[in-house]
Design a protein that fits this description.
- By secondary structure, the chain is an all-alpha fold.
- The chain has a domain of 57 residues.
- It contains 4 helices and no strands.
- The longest helix is centred in the last third of the chain and has 49 residues.
- The relative contact order is 0.04.
């Protein structure tokens, strides 16, 4: 099992890559975005496989909730990708602008979700540290 600091390091590196994608999008660097999209496709597949292995180790109740959440998110992002492919086919400016507005809103929601997850992770880390201190103090008393 990975250490918490390793997980946080990986999260930091992935956040940096996402920041680069945002900068490329602002600069409308299509080649750079396409290259990053290709890289992310394999990374998403890798992360999906890793998540599956980790979930096998979780308790049944927690595992069920994560499977439901992952399925919901996978369906949502698959829908977003389908809409993006339709955009390339249709070339309708008005529809493209409409889809872009929705994609931006989806991105905002995804960022909000990530921020929420980070807050929850920070809370869990602090709670774990406090619990460890309490356990160590109790062990020292006996």
């Amino acid at each position: 099992m990975k250490r918490l600091s390793d997980e946080l390091g990986e999260l930091s590196a992935r956040a940096k890559k996402t920041e680069e994608v945002v900068h490329a999008a602002v600069a409308q660097d299509r080649e750079r975005l396409q290259a990053r999209l290709d890289t992310l496709r394999s990374a998403v597949d890798d992360q999906k496989a890793k998540a599956g292995k980790r979930m096998a180790q979780a308790r049944t109740d927690v595992q069920t909730k994560w499977v439901e959440l992952r399925t919901t998110l996978d369906d949502h992002f698959a829908d977003m990708r389908t809409k993006a492919r339709q955009h390339k086919i249709e070339r309708d400016i008005r529809r493209a602008e409409h889809r872009a507005d929705h994609a931006e809103q989806d991105a905002i929601v995804a960022v909000d979700f990530a921020l929420y997850a980070l807050d929850q992770a920070e809370y869990a880390i602090i709670e774990a540290a406090v619990s460890r201190v309490e356990a160590d103090e109790l062990a020292a008393q006996h």
